[in-house]
Every structure is written in structure tokens, then in C-alpha cells.
Known about the structure:
Chain A is of the alpha+beta class. Chain A folds into three domains: about 1-100 and about 160-235 and about 330-395, 3-Layer(bba) Sandwich (FAD/NAD(P)-binding domain); about 100-160 and about 235-330, D-Amino Acid Oxidase, subunit A, domain 2 (D-Amino Acid Oxidase, Chain A, domain 2, 2-Layer Sandwich); about 400-465, no CATH class. Chain A is about 30% helix and about 20% strand. Chain A contains twelve helices and 22 strands. Chain A is globular, with a radius of gyration of 24 Å. Classes of the chains: A alpha+beta, B alpha/beta. At the A-B interface, helix 7, strand 18, helix 9 and helix 12 of A face helix 3, helix 4, helix 5, helix 6 and strand 14 of B. One flavin-adenine dinucleotide (FAD) binds near residues 29, 65, 215 and 324 of chain A.
Amino acid sequence: MTRSCPEPPPAGPELAAADVAIIGAGVVGTAIARTLARYALDIVLVDAAPDVGTGTSKANTAILHTGFDAAPGSLESRLLSRGSVLLRSYAAAAGIPVERTGALLVAWTPEQLAALPGIEAKARANGYQAIRPVRADELYSSEPALGPGAVGALEIPDESIICPWTTPLAFATEAVAAGVRLLLSAQVNGVCSADGGHELVTARGLVRARWVVNAAGLGSDAIDAMFGGGGFTITPRRGELIVFDKLARPLLRSVLLPVPTARTKGVLVAPTVYGNLLLGPTAQDVPDRADVATTEAGLRSLLAAGRRILPGLAAEEVTATYAGLRAATEHADYQVYADGGRRYACAGGIRSTGLSASLGIAEHVAGLLGEAGLPLPPRPGYPAAPPAMPYIGEAGPRPYQDAGLIAADPAYGEIVCHCERVSRGEIRDALASPVPPADPGGLARRTRAGNGRCQGFYCAAAVSRLLAGGPGPAAGVSAETPGAAEVRPR
Amino acid sequence: MSGDVAVVVVGAGPAGLSAARELRRLGVGSVLVADREAAAGGVPRHSAHTGYGLRDRHRVMTGPSYARALTGAARAAGAQVRPGTTVTGLAGGPDGSRLVTLTSAAGIETVRAAAVLLATGCRERPRAARLVPGDRPAGVMTTGELQQRVYLGGERLAGRALVIGAEHVSFSAALTLEHAGADVVALVTEHERQQSYAAFRLGAAIRWRIPVWTSCAVTRITGRGRLQGVEVTDGRTGAVRFVPCETAVFTGDWIPDHELARRAGLALDPGTRGPAVDTALATSVPGVFAAGNLVHAAETADIAALSGRHAARQIATFLTGGVLGRDRVPVLAEPPLRWISPNLIGSAAPPLGRFVLRSREFRRGARLEAWQDGRLLARSRPVRLIPERTAQLDAGWLDQVEQAGGPVRVVTGSRSGH
Ligand SMILES: Cc1cc2nc3c(=O)[nH]c(=O)nc-3n(C[C@H](O)[C@H](O)[C@H](O)COP(=O)(O)OP(=O)(O)OC[C@H]3O[C@@H](n4cnc5c(N)ncnc54)[C@H](O)[C@@H]3O)c2cc1C
Ligand SMILES: Cc1cc2nc3c(=O)[nH]c(=O)nc-3n(C[C@H](O)[C@H](O)[C@H](O)COP(=O)(O)OP(=O)(O)OC[C@H]3O[C@@H](n4cnc5c(N)ncnc54)[C@H](O)[C@@H]3O)c2cc1C
């Protein structure tokens, strides 16, 4: 049953055949890896990028959804409800920042107000009962900075905000500790399948595995086609977002959701676990699966929406802008299935809720694989406790605030990134961690270094020296420019 | 609590270091200067070119030697200068004192101070804050980052570079880029003219023949991984062109580092975006003063230093029980003026006996006028206003301000008067 055997692969290190190869180390692939790692399986986790979590998983709205507004009866609804419960307790144990801010779904017009009872009924059909209507006066007393004109809302008290970076890192760290091999910078370009299993042709050589799980996000349709699937096509739907300065954080207590339309959940304003405010996302179909550029029109439309929802934002500084791509398909639901004949499972088309649903998807995929014939013998000593991740949120103490920690190790008192208050100790720890960063962005996802309002005015140079193994902040001064022109004050 | 000091100075740049030395000279007992960076000196420490110190030290020196001189002088006068120390909190303490939280490798400590001077400086708005769309590649930075990379880190930069801005700091960035081995393609400014001093501009232009593209804006950044180029839109014609480059430096567009001030509940001035200060550089919280580029982003280092000295004298008065006027009359800058500093009239004359201001527009031969309740208090000689460049208004008219009156409005009158 050879399918798409391309050119002979480039020479590379040959890996021993694995029981399972997972393609894609986003939040979904890493969740599947740590879930399957509870069984006595030899697993390899493959990603095209030099780090885990660099795809859509790093650039989203960072909300831990309850699934209150999913389509009742859909797989997404089921895995989202289950996944958000699992992730909530996993996060608490692993030190993934989560804050239960709650959300207010705000109606601004009579038509939107009329839509609220339907949304409430949908939430109840999804098994979420804590939703309740909120009158305009109560809405304004809990969110006094809200713009004028809101006519009513629904409160969803369990909607939470989460750190999207620590989540796949925690999963990957747990997986690696359980023996999962992480093969990065290894784009899968083709596959040769025979009765004994599959040979993945990757940028780093052949990867042999008896079973393959496709968690390739925006590439999941291409991988699915390689395995003889081809039941879906991804059209990336780009979402642009604006991060506002931490000094804007007091404007808001909970997540402010709009009344959703058929196409998107709409533009929301949310606090982040790092203490900023987030405005977005837009929704625009783009042809290019790597086009995460922001656009003038996108940013302008967000600012206009932001001004209506939270007028105080207009006076605040913008810290960052970014865009993420939703893996949207022609189907409304997730594309998740397993096929014992092909020894293949697919977890693709996870469009806009995959962070929240990740552990639910992973549990479901493990079940499907078992039913499809993958033997799942328990691994001795498992399930083990989740790993202890460095806490990079604002809700708990950060190292620079922990006198005991600094006394034990002064590096935690040496602040390198001033805006985000990241210490040299945290950067050192990240570089020495089991899943270390590959570049400044990777370091930022592990520590927040460089993510602050100055965007590197003060720390970028020191941070890149630390990444290169150097000493970090330079205390000295270097050779002076010879013969440079003078500034001559009047 | 780990001790009492008379004054904590936050920030060891030109303003903070000059204030510390002056406080000690005036006999103030204990002065502690904290700076979060690895060494004292502020921005000049990163700025290896010459052009520092003219008005405060009466000679022109390079940034690093200026930084060393100021640090040495503060220490010699008996101030304790502590680098590697971030001020992470500022709150009110007992008996009108201030509690300052210091975080460093030595631990977390809280000191009680009779007065605090904030001299935390300013930074350039990075690309994101300016909402320039496009990709997010490496190679896009501010002058601050560029200087630290090149002068403190010894990095080389190959290839073409574009500088966004055409004020002093932009030419300084161009010098730094050339020093690091890059080829500066051009300086790009949305203004109709560049805004730097002739000598500096000529230095850059003649040595390296760097063109200035006026009325142009960078409207998109392109490059996945590494910068490939930027899109430049001509504001006059609407023409868009792609300019290949490996480095893009966003210069100027200053914003005060006001985080500590805001978190401590100090009132901000909507124009400068720094803490609102009166002519004694006192903020809205008694015992807390502010100086340097935190209250006027950005002036040259010598002006920041002299503002620090001025604050020191006012703090010394405050510490000896001298009353600093509480009935302060606001000073408002009206368009095309963008801001004025100080922004309240208190009991003292402002630093150097004048206000500093900024204009949004170019104006030739404009007269600055100060009005209160329909009364003309002063009219300046004709001045030239240039965006992002300093302008001054002498404060000789302060004795005519009615303490109980309305705000003083500063406007640009026509050539012939009002
Ligand atoms: C704007 C926006 C906002 C969102 N907001 C939320 C939210 O608030 N809450 C929420 O729960 N979800 C949200 N989502 C959705 C969520 O981010 C995604 O569902 C989730 O990240 C998908 O994870 P993934 O692992 O499937 O994909 P990815 O994170 O994209 O991972 C796929 C990985 O596969 C790799 N890969 C692809 N092709 C290959 C190949 N051929 N060979 C090797 N590796 C390959 C990629 O390099 C990538 O690392 C949002 C999404 C967007 C775009
Ligand atoms: C590229 C460039 C070129 C320049 N060229 C010239 C020139 O040629 N001539 C000239 O006269 N001027 C020049 N300047 C301007 C000059 O650098 C500034 O005027 C001067 O540094 C302002 O002094 P300051 O003390 O107000 O602030 P800064 O020098 O900015 O010092 C503020 C200090 O406070 C510290 N700080 C901030 N927050 C905290 C905190 N919470 N805790 C502890 N420390 C804190 C900062 O780390 C910093 O060290 C240039 C500036 C730049 C960026």
C-alpha cells in the first residue's frame, strides 16, 4: 500500500522505528504526545519548525473556552467541554498561567439583544449551565470602562484566560521526560507506506513508524492527502490582534465577547495572563499558509472596534501586533478520525478552539487509536505528575518578587528585560530546560523576555548575547566611534 | 524595611546623577541612586559618539565619557549609586515619607525616603507601537537597541539599512549603522523637511551621502525570518515603492518611561505623557519630584542634567520644610504646539528660567504667547518651530500670573502679533 513515495530522501541520521510518529508539535500534537506517552510506546514527535508551538498555537487569543457557544452535538462541542475541564486542572498542576476572569458577551443593538436567549439556550444544550443574562446597569457596574450603548449581556463565569506558550511547552516537556523523541526542523515531505508501517521522508532523514498521527495544523490537509485521505482542504483564515500596554489592564476585568456571526466569533477584548489587554481577532481568508503579516486595514478596523468597546484604549500605548492563521476547512467541525487499515489517525482542521480542546482531542485520538488496533499497554510509573513549568503569568509571584528565591539564587534578582521584569536566572533556566528555545522568539515564549513595551530598546542586545551563550547585560562601554560628527546644540 | 535615606533617585542617567551630586553639594544627608541597568550612566553610556556635556560640563565629550564623568561626580559627592537595581515599587509611607522597593541580586528591600526623584528617562516608540503593518522579521529595531548591539555588544551589521525619522537621533542612528558596517540607504520622514541641526546633518550627509526622503512613510515591513525590505509610500504622490534592506531602525517618537509614575498614582500630563510637574519639578504627590526626559521627551543630555540639578535644589528646599506652592496654575500648550514642560506654575522659576515645548508643524517667525483669562502675559521674539525639535519660552513673566486665575494658555501668535 505504497502511497506517495517521493524522491529519495536527503541523507540524515536514521532513527530507530517508532511505534507512533506524530506530525506537528503544536498544542494538539504535543497534547497527543504526552497523552500517548502514558502507554509503553516508542513515540517520535516531528515538526518542521526548530521549536514546539511555533504555528497557530503561539498566535491566538489565548482564551480557555468553556465551549458554551459550540454547535451542540458536534465533536468540537464534546472535545471542547471535556478538554477545557482537563486543561484547567492540568494547568493548575503544571504551573500554566490561567485566570478565571469570566466573560461577558455584550449586545450593542436590539437585534443582538434578541439573539442572547438563543445563545443561552445553546450553552445549556452544550451542558454549560452557569451562563446567565446580565442587565445593562449590572454590566456597567462590573465593567465601568465599557463604551456607551451596550444594552445587555450574558455572563459566562468560567471563561478563562491562559498562557498559550506554556501549554504546548508543558505537554512537550512531559512527553520528553517520558521518553518521546522530539525531532525538530524536520518537515515531512512525503511518506512511503508498506504493510509493516510508514517511512516519513523528512528534512532530517527518514522516520520509520508503525502508526502515524497527523496533527499538522495548517499542513494537516496535505499530510492527510499523503495518507490517502483528502477529505478536507484548509483555507487559512487570518486573525490579526493588537496587544495593549500593561498600563491599560485596569480598564477591564473580564473578557468582553461580541455576539458571534456565522463566520467568526468576532472581535473581543481580553486581558492576558501577562497583564496586558488584547484586541482582536479579525477574520480574513488568505491563500498563503505562512502569511502571518498584519495589514493596515486589519489594524485600523481593530482600533475602530476597540474604541467603541473600550474607549479608554485610545489613549493607551500599543505593545505589539501579530496575526495567526485558523486552520479553517470546508467543514464546520474538527477533522478527527483513525483508520486501523492505514495505521493512521488525523487530528486536523482544528480551527479556532484547539488550545482549549487540546487535551480532549488527545484523549479522543488515543481512544480512536486503541479502537483501531494500536496496542496501548500501560507504561510503568504512569500516569505521572505533570511537569513543574516556570510560572510566567502575573497572577502568581514572579521570581523577581520572591525574596526567598533571590536569596537562594541572586540571578533571580538580576532583571534583564525591564518591561516584563525577566531575570537572568529565568533566562538561564530556559536555555537549560529539556525543551530549550531556538531563537529570541522561543526565549520570549518561555520567559516573556523582549515582549514588553520597549520591544528591545533596553534588553534585546543583552538577551541575544545570553542566547548566544554570552554574559548578558554589558556593564562596560566599548570603543568609541572615531571621528563621528558632533551634535551641536544651539 | 531596610533603612531610611533622605532622597532616593530613580534612574542614573544624566538627570538622576546630576541631581544626586547637587543634593549632596547642598548638604542633603543620604542620597541613593538606583539604576536597573548593569552600569550607571543612562542612555549616554550606550551612545559612543561625541556631542555630550556642552551646557552642564562646558565641554563636548562622548556619551560614555560623559556617563563616567557624571557617575564619578555623583559618587565623589557622596551619593550611593547602585546599578543593577530596579525600583519595583513606590508607595506612601508613614509621616509623609515614601516607601521605595528596590529589587536586585542582593534581594528585595524597601527603603523609606523623605523625598523621591523620578529620573527614568524616555524610550523610542518601537515599530509595533507605531502600528506599522507587515511581517515581524529580525532586523527591525529602535536606536536604543541598535546602540546597545553595536557599542555595548560589538555587533557588526552587514547590508543595507533604512532609518525611519530625520531628527537628531536619526542621524545618530545613521552614524552608528555606518560604524557597524551597514550601508544607510536613506532617512525617511513623514515631515516635509528633516529636523536636525545643520552641522550634524552635514556630517552624515557629506561623509556618506545619505539622502533624506521627506513626506514619506514606511507602510509595510516584509521578510519572513530576516528583514527583506520595507514599503515606502510617498505622501505627496501616493506612490509606493519597495526598498530592499536588511536593517530598519525606528528612531525618535519618544515616550517617557512613566510606568513607575503611573503605578504610583501620579497625575500625568496629557501632552508630555510624563508626570505632570510644576516649575519646581514637583509632581502631584508631595515629596515626589520628576526630572530629565521623563518630563520632556526628548531633550539633549545636558538639558536633562540641568533639569536634575534644578530638581535637587527644590528637593533641598522641600526637605528643610520650605513650602512649595500647592496652588498651581496649569500651563496648556495649544495646537500646533504639542506639549509644554513644566506644565504647572508653582513657587519656583522653571529649570534654566524657561519652558520647553514642541510643535507639530514647521513655523517660521512665530511668536509664542502666554495668555491668562484673556490677558496677554508675554510674547516671545520670533522663533522657528520644527517638529520633534526643542523650542523655548523664557519664563520672565511668571510674576504676572494670577494665582487664583485660570490656566495659562501658550499659543503661537502670527508674525504681526495677535
Ligand atoms: C486568531 C486566532 C485566535 C484563536 N483563539 C483561540 C482561543 O482563544 N482559544 C483557543 O482554544 N483556540 C484559539 N485559536 C485556535 C487555536 O490556536 C488552534 O486551534 C490551535 O493552536 C491549533 O493547534 P495545532 O497544533 O492543530 O496547530 P499548530 O499550532 O499550527 O501546529 C501544527 C504544527 O504542525 C507543523 N507542521 C505542519 N506541516 C508540517 C509538515 N509537513 N511536517 C512537519 N511539521 C508540520 C507546524 O510546523 C506546526 O508546528 C485561535 C486561532 C487563531 C488563528
Ligand atoms: C541615539 C541617541 C543619541 C543621542 N545623542 C545625544 C547627543 O549627542 N547629545 C546629547 O546631549 N544627547 C543625546 N541624546 C539624548 C540623551 O541621551 C538624553 O537626553 C539623556 O540620556 C536623558 O537623560 P535622563 O537622565 O533623563 O534619562 P536616561 O539617560 O534615559 O536615564 C534614565 C535611566 O533610568 C533607568 N530607569 C528607568 N526606570 C527605572 C527603574 N524603575 N528603576 C531603576 N532604574 C530605572 C534607565 O534604565 C536609565 O538608565 C541621545 C539619545 C539617543 C537615544
